[in-house]
């Protein structure tokens, strides 16, 4: 399994849900805006930037059933695992978060 640590983790409470923001280093580049959400008991890390106008998605409405996040700025509905947000599973180990880059 290949893991990338989530750095500078910050916890946020949004509409009664806990979310986290942070950074990660992927393929030698810093992924500065990472948003971690809990979806049906699983943690998923996505790019915290809307592809429309690059706004933060932290306050977006999560649809856990559809697996989407609605941008709070203009309402684009984005699949968490789609090409825009590039969602990856996140593993919590001893209070630290890691992006799962490869399950093998
Ligand atoms: S910035 Fe997200 S929909 Fe416009």
Name of the CATH first level: Mainly Beta
Q: Report how far the terminal alpha carbons are from each other.
A: 5 Å
- In CATH, the architecture is 3-layer Sandwich
CATH fold annotation: Rieske Iron-sulfur Protein
Please name the fourth-level CATH homologous superfamily. Rieske [2Fe-2S] iron-sulphur domain
- Which range does the strand content fall in? over 45%
Radius of gyration: 13 Å
Q: Describe the oligomeric state of these chains in a short phrase.
A: single chain
Arrangement of strands in the largest sheet: 1-2-3-4-8-9
Overview of the molecule:
The chain has 104 residues and is mainly beta. It has a single domain (2-102), classed as Rieske Iron-sulfur Protein, CATH 2.102.10.10. Helices cover 0% and strands 60% of the residues. It contains no helices and 9 strands. It has strands at residues 2-14, 17-26, 29-39, 42-47, 61-63, 68-70, 77-79, 88-93, 96-102. Strands 1-2-3-4-8-9 form a 6-stranded antiparallel barrel. A 3-stranded antiparallel beta sheet has the order 5-6-7, with no helix packed on it. The chain starts with a strand and ends with a strand. The mean pLDDT is 93. FE2/S2 (inorganic) cluster is lined by residues 50, 52-53, 55, 71, 73-76.
């Amino acid at each position: 399994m290949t893991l990338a640590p989530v750095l500078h983790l910050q916890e946020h409470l949004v509409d009664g849900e806990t979310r986290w923001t942070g950074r990660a280093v992927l393929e030698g580049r810093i992924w500065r805006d990472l948003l971690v959400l809990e979806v049906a008991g699983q943690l998923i890390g996505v790019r915290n930037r809307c592809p429309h106008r690059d706004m933060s998605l932290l306050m977006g409405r999560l649809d856990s059933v559809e697996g989407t996040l609605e941008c709070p700025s203009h309402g684009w509905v984005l699949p968490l695992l789609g090409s825009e947000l590039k969602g990856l599973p996140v593993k919590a180990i001893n209070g630290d978060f890691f992006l799962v880059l490869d399950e093998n």
